[in-house]
C-alpha cells in the first residue's frame, strides 16, 4: 500500500492544498453542485494557466475592490446604521458623533479593540465601525452614501 493511500485511509488530509480543495469539491458535489463546480474550476484554472488561487476564486477583485473590501464595507455600514438607530434616525447627530470620535477621542482609546465601557451605544458602534479597517465617512454626504450602500453580504 502506498504512503498516500495509507494517509487517506487514516482520515488525514493530504498536505498539498490543491488536493485538499479537490477533496472539498468532491464532497460538495452531492450537496451543492454549483459550489463544487466553482472550486473545481478555480483549481483547474490555477493548474492549467498558473492563475493565482485568490484570483481564480474571485478574491483578487478588480480595480482594487476585493470581495474582502465589500464585506468589510457592509459590516462598517451596518454598524453605522445601528448607531443611527440609537440616535433616533438623526443623520446630523450621527455626523456629529463621528466627528467627535475622529477629532476628540484619544488615539490610545481608538486603538483598543473594545470600546470604552463609559461610551454611549452610538459611540461604541462607531468605534466598532472604525475597526473594520476602512475608515469612517467624515462628511454628512459620505455618511448618507455609506448608509445607502448597505449591500447584502
Summarize it.
The protein has 153 residues and is mostly helical. The protein has helices spanning 3-9, 17-29, 33-49, 53-56, 67-86, 91-104, 107-110, 121-130, 140-148. It folds into two domains: 3-56, no CATH class; 67-148, no CATH class.
H/I helix tally: 9
Q: Average pLDDT, to the nearest integer?
A: 88
Weakly predicted, low-confidence segments? none
Helix and strand sequence: HHHHHHHHH
Main beta sheet strand tally, sense and closure: none
Q: Count the strands?
A: 0
In angstroms, what separates the terminal alpha carbons?
46 Å
* Tally of discrete structural domains: 2
Strand content: under 5%
Briefly note the structural class of the backbone.
mainly alpha
Radius of gyration: 22 Å
Amino acid at each position: 500500500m502506498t504512503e498516500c493511500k495509507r494517509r487517506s485511509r487514516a482520515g488525514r488530509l493530504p498536505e498539498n492544498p490543491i488536493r485538499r480543495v479537490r477533496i472539498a469539491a468532491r464532497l460538495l458535489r452531492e450537496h451543492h453542485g454549483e459550489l463544487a463546480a466553482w472550486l473545481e474550476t478555480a483549481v483547474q484554472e490555477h493548474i492549467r494557466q498558473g492563475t493565482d488561487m485568490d484570483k481564480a476564486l474571485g478574491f483578487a477583485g478588480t480595480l482594487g475592490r476585493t470581495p474582502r473590501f465589500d464585506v468589510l464595507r457592509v459590516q462598517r455600514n451596518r454598524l453605522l446604521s445601528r448607531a443611527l438607530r440609537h440616535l433616533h434616525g438623526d443623520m446630523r447627530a450621527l455626523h456629529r458623533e463621528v466627528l467627535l470620535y475622529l477629532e476628540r477621542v484619544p488615539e490610545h482609546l481608538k486603538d483598543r479593540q473594545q470600546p470604552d465601557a463609559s461610551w454611549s451605544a452610538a459611540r461604541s458602534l462607531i468605534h466598532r465601525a472604525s475597526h473594520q479597517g476602512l475608515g469612517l465617512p467624515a462628511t454628512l454626504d459620505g455618511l448618507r452614501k455609506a448608509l445607502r450602500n448597505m449591500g447584502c453580504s
